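The aim of this short unit is practical: by the end, you should be able to scan a pair of folded records and say something sensible about each. We start with the first protein, listed as its amino acid sequence and then its structure tokens.
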Amino acid sequence: MAKEKREYVMLVCSEGGDVNYYTSRSKTSPKLELKKYNPRLRKHTLHMEKKRK
């Protein structure tokens, strides 16, 4: 069987530590850092990638 070229990750808020989003990315790309909305804090914050278990 062929290996998967994508991996599934969680996006964790850098301010609150909440896991708000799940997404997939290419295994060869650098780690994701996106500004996303945090509903608990009610503002846009930086979200960083963490591996999904």
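Turning to the second protein, read its sequence before its tokens, just as you did above.
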Amino acid sequence: MESSAATPISTSRVALPFLIVGTAAVIFGGLFSAATARSATYHSAWLVAYLVLVVGVAQVALGLGEWWLASRPLRFSFIWGQVVLFALGNAGVILGSLSGSTFWVDVGSAFLLVAIGSFGWAVRSPRPRGWALWAFWALIGFLLASVVVGVYFAHVGAP
């Protein structure tokens, strides 16, 4: 049975898009690192770290956390909205950081703030999961703080 935008999907399928995109980002980051290892630059090293840690690991952790903790079924449109917002946000941050454009960093960061906030909203009344809930909220807090710090460094220059 196909889900429509108005039909909730089971929580067991919530994490799949995040797992696919996040795993692809980790693999691409590793391949890019291998390809540029002999002539690595600050920008190539930053891109690899960003792809692996934010686009990859953090996205997988957010998707799995949302799946594990959400007490209500999440709509297909909501999940794909998160995927798209997170992708657009990361694309903006990467484009802006590599081109030196604070405009694109700001736009990407705004998308990321909304995307990260949506993960918190999805788990606003979570299933009781103990340490997993604390870890999920810690990740959200860390990512939100990282966006603010990243915007600051984009505007004043990295140390």
